[in-house]
Amino acid sequence: MRRQVLLFFSVLFLSSALGQVSFSIPEEMAKGSLVGNIAHDLGLDVKRLQAGKARIHTGDSAEYVQLNKEKGLLIIKERIDREALCGQTTPCALHFQIALENPIEIFPITVEITDINDNAPVFEKAERRFEISETAVVGSKFMLEKAIDADIGQNGLQSYTLKPDDHFELKLHSQSDGGKKVEMILKKPLDREKQEFASLLLTAIDGGEPHRSGTMQIHINVLDANDNAPVFTKNVYKASVKENSPAGTLITKVSASDVDKGSNGEVTYVIGNSMRSISKLFQVTDDGLLILNGPIDYEKAKKYEIDIEAVDRGGLSDSSKIVIDVGDINDNNPVINMISFSHVIGEDILPNTVVAAMSVNDPDSEENGKVRCVIDKNIPFLITPTSSNFYSIVTDSKLDREVASKYNVTVTCSDEGVPSLSSSVNLTLQISDVNDNAPVFERSSYEAYIVENNTPGLSIFTVKARDADWNQNSRVSYILEDSSVNGVPVSSYVSVSADSGVIHAVRSFDYEQIKDFHFRVKAQDGGSPPLSSNVTPQTGRCLK
């Protein structure tokens, strides 16, 4: 038996980038604007981008940038609003990957979005009213509402002015969150008999070029008598709350005292933060209890800083801060994103070849966010981590389509929280055929009899071979091998049907001239190159 085998090997590689390509662009760039020459920065030929079907993979995030494969450029696809994208978080960046195929390569890309001065400081309320006793001492403090500027850095809120400034001046206190607490300080005693009402204009100014500003009108009604302001027992209150805590949960209690008597010594509490999100999530009662008012999510905010104000009946006030740490719970399943996947692979693929690449992310913290991925056992594939949050599925051993023509692979990723949460994805891998099996005859030899003086063209017997391969590789043809009988080519005696394997007599046989003879038939498949095997039928034994 002769057997020829030609194997073709195809390997996919997952590139592990040595460095990360980064760009920096301002927000609000027009559609079609150039981000950068990604082909140049990655050291790739544009033809590689086209042949590798280069594409941007962003996972669940929106696509703001698109790839021009013909020129190897990254360009703006959608207008980017840094404030909508990142809020106060800095730096603000888009993180995505450029994926190539044949071989598979993954390149992490970072595009930093820088701020422009496109937002003016804004007060939540257009005006604020105070009732202040004429006996208020110089140095009395009145907490003002902070303005909010969605921009950051130099473009963000920088200063305040107060006009007219005859009786009051501003004092700013830097806070750990980068903001400034604003207090209006009495610098000259009030006299109700001279001026019962006063209107001031508080202006918040940012540092952009040109400057932007916002204003709030302050109305003051001068009262008699109340000469002592409330005083908090602490400058900073600290508390913690789990992210799954229900509405109505008591977080902490604040307390301020006022040495005045009667109604002038009665203190109420209000939240001083101007951000609507704070007022929706928390409320403070008249007796200083801070209550959770809505759902909180650790993945959205890990800490809250709340300005709290104690106000007496005369309008005097003191301020303090409540710092709330949000505790994480395991409430997020790992998120699996397929970056690239080879749906069909050849059975001659080498072990350790990458057939799929994916990223896995769990937004929870610490153990709750640590993820481990596994795949089914007893299949010739392994899952291996390639870098932080990235995994590859590779072949673990040689494949044989004749044993299994496809595999259903289930990838399960579980976090280390208690209880653990998991996500799964199912992949179907089709195994394509290569010509690695020769035809095999049903018998090792055949023997037949024929009565002399037969009719030419008579069907004598049939040979049959089968090929385990598929489609064209398993299509069998039968060929009569060259040989001679008594010096005469065997083709003068018999023929074989290429498709059916039927052996026919070419001539009429004479027992007295030939009693038996041997010849060989080859079965050959339709592969490239073809594989074949032989069998030796013994025809003859001519009967008298």
UniProtKB/TrEMBL annotation:
Domain Cadherin residue range list: 17-123, 124-232, 233-336, 337-441, 442-536
Keywords noted in UniProt: Calcium, Cell adhesion, Cell membrane, Glycoprotein, Membrane, Repeat, Signal, Transmembrane, Transmembrane helix
SUPFAM superfamilies listed in its UniProt record: Cadherin-like (SSF49313)
Localisation: Cell membrane
Compositional bias of kind Polar residues: 530-544
GO CC, alphabetical: plasma membrane
Signal peptide: 1-19
Domain of life of the organism encoding this protein: Eukaryota
Stored Pfam families: Cadherin, Cadherin_2
InterPro entries: Cadherin-like_dom (IPR002126), Cadherin-like_sf (IPR015919), Cadherin_CS (IPR020894), Cadherin_N (IPR013164), Protocadherin/Cadherin-CA (IPR050174)
Main location: membrane
Record bears the keyword Iron: no
SMART domains reported in the protein's UniProt record: CA
Region Disordered: start-end pairs: 525-544
Keyword Translocase attached: no
GO BP terms: anatomical structure morphogenesis; homophilic cell adhesion via plasma membrane adhesion molecules
Membrane topology summary: Single-pass type I membrane protein
Record-level Gene Ontology MF annotations: calcium ion binding
PANTHER family referenced in this protein's UniProt entry, alphabetically: CADHERIN-87A, PROTOCADHERIN 1 GAMMA 11 PRECURSOR-RELATED
Role played: Potential calcium-dependent cell-adhesion protein. May be involved in the establishment and maintenance of specific neuronal connections in the brain.
Designated name of the protein: Cadherin domain-containing protein
Organism: Gasterosteus aculeatus aculeatus (three-spined stickleback)
